[in-house]
Design a protein that fits this description.
The protein is mainly β and 64 residues long. It has one domain: Ubiquitin-like (UB roll), CATH 3.10.20. Helix content is 11%, strand content 31%. The chain has one helix and five strands; from the N terminus they run E-E-H-E-E-E. It has a five-stranded mixed beta sheet, with no helix packed on it. The longest helix has 7 residues.
Length: 64
């Protein structure tokens, strides 16, 4: 199991970019932390999620 924003999800073996697309995330407005380290956006398509990974997804929000 992978922990994403505090919730356990079955995403072992998935490519991070595929997981993000499946869940409807817009890559241009998020930042990803994996196991305590920030990931460059260019790495999203190369990272394979593994059991025990802890992923934090932070979305940017605009306001006025």
């Amino acid at each position: 199991m992978v922990t994403v924003n505090g919730e356990s999800v079955q995403a072992d073996g998935m490519v991070l970019s595929d997981y993000l697309a499946q869940e409807g995330y817009r890559v241009d407005v998020i930042v990803i932390e994996r196991n305590g380290e920030m990931l460059p956006k260019g790495d999203y398509k190369n990272v394979i999620l593994q059991s025990g990974d802890v992923i934090e997804i932070v979305s940017f929000m605009g306001g006025g």
